[in-house]
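Example 307, ligand phosphoric acid mono(formamide)ester.
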Amino acid sequence: MRNLITDQDLTKDEILALFESVKELKEKQKRGEPHRLLEGKTLAMIFEKTSLRTRTSFEIGMFQLGGHASFLNSQDLQLGRGETVADTARVLGRYYNAIMARVFDHGNLETLRECAGVPVINGLSDKFHPCQALTDIFTIWERGLDLREITIVFAGDADNNVTNSLMLICARLGIRFRVTCPVEYMPREEIISLAQIDKAADMFPVAIYTSDPKNAARNADVIYTDTWVSMGKEKENKKRIRLLSPYQVNKELVSCAKNDVLVMHCLPAHRGQEITDEVIDSTNSIVFDQAENRLHVQKAILTMLLR
Ligand code: CP
């Protein structure tokens, strides 16, 4: 039985095979060709936090694959009244073929994995967002870029789940990854070590620039950013905006990269904070292709785990 809890649950070859499967599913969807590969299969979707993309893409994805998904707001479950995560997993595992969960504490995903007896998918935790990172790299890959030749620059809060997952997947695939961020929001040592010990990485992928975002962006193929105030970090709002402002993805920063640099953001965006309107709406931006691809990637993940 397979799970997708972190980006390291898939080998390099499995990730590349997944991309081929995403491409095929996306083409079938565009042609209106039925692909009911999960007829009669069911997915439980537990959400402890809000979501637009993850919830709807998994729900529609299961429908298009011939299966069914149930949205379970954690507050409406007995979890909110003290039933344990382990017991919830044991019950859901008897009804459903798989569980996808968005949780505050990554440990809850590990408990689900241990107790459910069915595949568990991470729909975002405090540590990782593997479905997002797989989609991000697929979105670059489908444009025909050679992943071994590109440099991705992440600008902003680098101590978050999206950066962690990007770092791990870049290590696994041998993609050069630069981070530009204030010292207060550096990637955690624990995550850098995980990326560093990845035997599949043929180079150390992470370079960190704490004081010079323009230098970090020089000749970049991809510039990526994410919200400065992730879910659960709202209390530090003012401090975050002050410290992260020099790392905004704006026209000036983008001009340091290659002319055809791809600009990415996992959304939701706070326009005018981490990214300007001018950049997110520019021809360099592939942000909405990225959002669309969540659907196709999720379908390939479900098919890989449930068939
Ligand atoms: N990027 C992402 O996971 O979007 P949602 O929070 O809307 O699911």
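Summary: The pocket of phosphoric acid mono(formamide)ester is lined by residues 51-54, 124, 132, 266-267 (CB under 6 Å).
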